[in-house]
Design a protein that fits this description.
Helices cover 23% and strands 25% of the residues. The mean pLDDT is 88. It contains four helices and seven strands, in the order E-H-H-E-E-E-H-E-H-E-E.
Length: 167
């Protein structure tokens, strides 16, 4: 299963929002389409297209290092930042554990490298810290994470130069 990683088209947003709603059902993390759009920079946000169906997505935006968007309110990218913040990565439930999330993460790392970002950051939620550690990220427990991410959320980052390239 390969699929095409491509930029998010206007027509993709309803499917992206539906994937997000399914991934975070029964949690306060669902942001809806407007919130998701505010977390996506066109140059650094992508969908995984499997034969015309959106099977996953990654939303990232330039953001100050050791800071992250508050999920309780829309935000804007910090266009001057040397840090790219991965706000959300979701793969459709039936397709998880097939390496697609890692593929999206590596693609984002390649794009960050090509665009000159020094670091990539994210907030690991709901016990996902081991996944992100396996993908080269390190926790920064001193960084403040808004309560909206839930208990146990951890800010993590990685130098772009240290991330593995997509293969």
């Amino acid at each position: 299963m390969t699929g095409l990683i491509r930029g998010i088209a206007e027509a993709d947003w309803p499917q992206v929002a539906a994937l997000e709603a399914g991934a975070y059902a029964d949690t306060p993390l669902t942001e809806g389409e407007a919130g998701l759009r505010s977390r996506a920079s066109a140059a650094t946000s992508f969908v995984l297209d499997l034969d015309g169906r959106i099977a996953g997505y990654v939303l990232a935006l330039p953001y100050r290092r050791f800071h992250c968007p508050d999920p309780a309110r829309p935000d804007e990218a910090a266009h001057h930042a040397a840090n790219l913040h991965l706000h959300d990565l979701v793969v459709s439930a039936p397709l998880r554990r097939r390496g697609l999330g890692t593929r999206l993460a590596r693609h984002l790392g390649d794009v960050a490298r090509a665009r000159g970002f020094a670091t990539l950051s994210l907030v690991a939620i709901a016990g996902r810290e081991p996944f992100w550690r396996a993908n080269g990220y390190h926790p920064h427990h001193e960084a403040r994470v808004p309560a909206g991410y839930g208990s146990g959320a951890v800010y993590m980052s990685a130098p772009v130069a240290a991330l593995r390239r997509a293969g």
